[in-house]
Design a protein that fits this description.
This protein is of the alpha/beta class. The chain has 19 helices and 27 strands. Residues 118-134 have a biased composition (Basic and acidic residues).
Length: 652
């Protein structure tokens, strides 16, 4: 009989329900096949019609949610449906063998259903990206629903113990790229477990109220209690399970199964919390979706563990003594500390166009045209037509190492964008971007950071210039990725290497969202010149800038710290690298936040990683740094000083 309409609110719920229905349908098909073989007067054709209807319903369930899956997911689900359809078709053929003389029969209801489904599938496949998605993408996607995910990643040769003290209620646990470890997860309220690339390790986990999903595991011993257990692309694993629905494997080899057999003081409470009954364990009712097409009863890919089933008695106190690494330390290892230490990142020496996630150097004429128009826009008596005279067709890039054909030939920006299938809105003129000319003090001049902020579909003009009477200082703050970022500071006589980003209105709005803690100001008479024309005179231009609202990093005004990674002449302030400034900040904050006893760079790595992981630490550090900060441009604006030169536009 047809069931109620299948519905799911997200990928995870769909995945669990799909596999549950698919396993039940496979079991029903096998039951009908056994009954057909034994003979009898039952209405087998009617029962097969019902099963075809359930298969149709399952396929409709998939098609209704096809847009939320990765390509890998879709193909996996389609493979299962195909296996079920082949089994049902074979059952129909066995029950109704073809006669020697066959007349063309009228198309049945279920024949029409299958024909319609084939047409829908062809249409769906034609509109779906054919590029293969990785398993890693699937796991990242499934993690995105949970705000309480605990991740163990990139660890080897450790003993890891997680208890209720380490886990949030309704936690989702992810284990990735772990080898030669012992892992114990003994907490209640675990919603889901996701494992990929676990090798030569043992794992014991109790009380999962949802599903456990294993990918690419090898040579592991795993003990799991979960509502549903699925294993993909794994080999040589011993799996001890408590599962009410029977384990599911796919594309696996040399898998051995046994009952759970784990005891520790709180296990009964943990199992009840997950609604798991030790007496309702189908550990040996394994479904191998890779073997369904074979027609053979027993899959060769799994077997019952031949040796005597081994129970495990755990003592939490002993385990905590054995623990060799804290969860906080595991999280530290996950942090990309290099992203902080490499700030402000690599910046091309020449002006460029950022497009399709790459940079393409502007030719000298295009650079001069853009800089002259920025200057013209600043002149009160400038002719509007002169400012508006730039079109994208007038900008050229130098083709070479950044474009896949040889020689340093000239190519228009319009042609370049056409190559990458990028179309600009008619209202998005170069002249409009000139009006949004924003100084790129630090990382905003780097294509690496522009790609993080804008992706690969945006087009950004970046001009390389020199700015006079200013320098690039450190801010009294810590960014979300752990760097001490840049701000602008006055510096009489200094000439500093700088970038200008020419942004569309939408890009400017999005850029504002990434500059938290900064003020957006207008410099009415900024003195600039092309970096590649050092003999030319500096000219006044009206340019915008992001400056730190709390001034710049300083030791009570005795020294202002500027970025050594940014070139400048006639500097009057103290140069520090990102590593050196992190060391200075950690010393200033040693009485406010924990600073680790590790030596050398390891101590700084810990300091940065914990700052990334803990927003409250960053706030505490910023309070310390503001006490000795040097008043900057925003302070002057708020005090009403030099308002002819500066204008506060917005505080972000």
């Amino acid at each position: 009989m047809f069931q109620d309409k299948l519905e799911a609110k997200d990928v995870e719920e769909f995945d669990q329900l799909f596999y549950k229905k698919a396993v039940q349908l496979a079991a029903d098909v096998e039951s009908v096949n056994n009954a057909i073989e034994s003979g009898g007067n039952s209405d087998f054709n009617g029962r097969l019609d019902d099963l075809f209807g359930e298969l149709y319903q399952l396929r409709t369930f998939l098609n209704n949610m096809i847009g939320i899956f990765t390509t890998y997911d879709r193909k996996r689900y389609e493979k299962i449906l195909k296996s079920l359809q082949v089994q049902l078709t074979n059952s129909r053929t066995t029950l109704n063998p073809a006669s020697a003389f066959v007349f063309k029969s009228k198309q049945t209801f279920f024949d029409r259903i299958q024909a319609e489904q084939k047409q829908k599938q062809k249409k769906s496949e034609s509109t779906t990206d054919s590029k293969e998605s990785s398993i890693q993408e699937e796991l990242d996607y499934s993690e995105s629903y949970s705000k309480s995910t605990t991740t163990i990643q990139g660890v080897s040769n450790e003993t890891i113990v997680l208890t209720d003290a380490d886990l949030m209620e309704n936690a989702s646990i992810t284990i990735r790229n772990v080898s030669d470890c012992k892992i114990y997860i003994l907490g209640s309220g675990i919603r889901a477990l996701r494992i990929t690339k676990l090798s030569r390790s043992s794992l014991i986990c109790a009380g999962i109220s949802g599903s456990a999903l294993l990918y690419e595991c090898s040579s592991v011993q795993v003990r799991l209690a979960a509502r549903q257990i699925r294993i993909h692309l794994s080999t040589q694993c011993s799996i001890y399970v408590l599962v009410p629905s029977g384990p599911i494997i796919e594309d696996c080899t040399f898998m051995k199964f046994a009952p759970y057999l784990v005891r520790y003081p709180d296990i009964d409470a943990h199992l009840r919390h997950a609604d798991l009954d030790p007496n309702a364990n189908r550990w040996n009712q394994v479904t191998d979706f890779s073997w369904m097409l074979s027609g053979s009863k027993q899959s060769p890919n799994w077997s019952i563990l031949e040796s005597e089933f081994q129970s495990v008695e755990l003592n939490e106190t002993d385990l905590l003594r054995e623990k060799s690494i804290e969860l906080s330390e595991i999280n530290v290892k996950r942090v990309d500390v290099d992203r902080a230490l490499e700030y402000p990142y690599w910046r091309p020496d020449s002006s460029y166009i950022f497009a399709a996630g790459q940079h393409f150097f502007l030719d000298s004429e295009s650079e001069s045209l853009l800089i002259s128009n920025i200057v013209s826009y600043a002149e009160e008596n400038a002719c509007a037509n002169q400012v508006d005279s730039i079109s994208w067709d007038k900008l050229n890039v130098i083709s070479g190492c950044d474009i896949d054909h040889g020689g340093n030939t000239i190519q228009s920006v319009t042609e370049l964008l056409h190559r990458f299938g990028i179309e600009l809105d008619q209202s998005d003129s170069v002249a409009a971007r000139v009006r949004n000319s924003v100084l790129a003090l630090g990382s905003n001049a780097s294509p690496i950071q522009l790609k993080r902020k804008f992706g690969e579909q945006e087009v950004v003009i970046v001009l390389r210039i020199e700015l006079q009477h200013y320098d690039v200082a450190y801010s009294p703050m810590v960014s979300g990725y752990g760097a001490i970022p840049a701000t602008l500071v006055e510096s009489q006589g200094t000439r500093v290497d700088m970038g200008i980003t020419c942004l569309s209105n939408n890009q400017l709005t999005n850029m504002h969202k990434t500059e938290y803690g900064y003020s957006y100001i207008q410099l009415n008479r900024a003195l600039i010149r092309s970096k590649h024309l050092p003999e030319s005179e500096f000219v006044a231009a009206r340019i915008y800038a992001y400056v730190q609202s709390n001034g710049c990093l300083s030791d009570s005004g005795r020294q202002v710290f500027v970025l050594s990674s940014i070139q400048a002449e006639n500097r009057v302030h103290t140069e520090l690298s990102q590593l050196d400034v992190q060391r200075w900040v950690s010393k200033q904050c040693k009485n406010t936040v924990e600073v680790f006893n590790s030596k050398g760079e390891r101590a700084i790595h810990h300091f940065i990683a914990h700052n990334v992981l803990d927003k409250s630490r960053r706030i505490s550090i910023e309070k310390v740094l503001r006490k000795t900060a040097f008043d900057g441009l925003v302070s002057k604006l708020e005090a009403g000083l030099d308002t002819d030169d500066f204008q506060l536009i917005a505080q972000l």
